[in-house]
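Think of the structure tokens as a kind of shorthand, similar to the way a musician reads notation: each symbol stands for something richer, in this case the local conformation of the backbone. In the example below we present two proteins back to back. Begin with the first one, reading the sequence and then the tokens, and try to describe in your own words what changes along the chain.
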Amino acid sequence: MNDEKKKLNAKDLIVTGIFAVLLLSAAMFGGGPFATIPTLTFYFPIGAAVLAGPIFMLFIAKVPKYGALAIVGVVLCTLGTLTGMHWGMNFGFLICSIIASIVSGAGHFKKPVLNLIAYLVYCIGPMGTYFVFFFNRESWISFMLKKGTEQEYIDKMNDVASGGVMLIMVVGTLVVASVSGLLGLRLMKKQFVKAGIAA
């Protein structure tokens, strides 16, 4: 009986699909404005982490099962691939979603500290494309030019790319994700539970 409860059912899959769209929308609304500006695109992961914390925490509460976050990663990876996003971001989302599921699952999806760490891991996902840019720039540029990215956009990225920018991206994302994740946990405790949205 307990094994059955741990398995994803049809309802869980529907809820997971809905939250995958919500998490993607949060990333696009928060990070999209940065991505459109070549000199600010490296801060996309920071913006993407702003709004998703409460959504992520509610999702874990609604579907506290192994595999749910992995499915979110598969959905984000698939959509990213279909829309021409760099493979570094797509697989970053996939890999980090799987790791996040393992981290949160270690506490049976109920330990706030582990859920917060899981969210931090999840937010590292979008950085994948920028890590490729910094460490294998020619490959990144070749891939994006084939996908239709303009040379002018890439040239402006090159002008501002530096170790300092990468540091700001990583540290900034983790700081913002921590705040967003803590807000999500606070809302879970005070509002979502009272409203009966989460158990």
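Once you have a description of the first chain, move to the second and do the same.
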Amino acid sequence: MYGMARNIKSAEDNIVNSIIGEGSNFKGEFNINGLLRIDGHFQGTIETDGKVLIGQTGEAITDIKARMVVVGGTVRGNIFATERVIFLSTGVINGNIITPSLIMEEGVKFEGSCTINKRPDEMQ
């Protein structure tokens, strides 16, 4: 049963609930369920129990609280992820990271600090 629930959750992770397209500018507070993809310019805060994807053309001046964050563009701000942060080779990050798991491809530009903590379900 657990495996089936996990597969359903994985499928839901790939459904884009919201997108800030290339050439778009958005300022404000984003509270969503599911996946947010940023290919344009975003300034503000992001909070979701899902996934945030900053595309290669995306730029975010933000603090992000999410389950998973994938950065292929530019992020200036702090990232708090409850599951994982993935920096793609095209990523540029200026800020602090707190996450239980970090994956960083070769070529990433990162300035800040990183704290690897336990997942909430591992804490006692």
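Compare your description with these statements about the second chain. The two ends are 25 Å apart (CA to CA).
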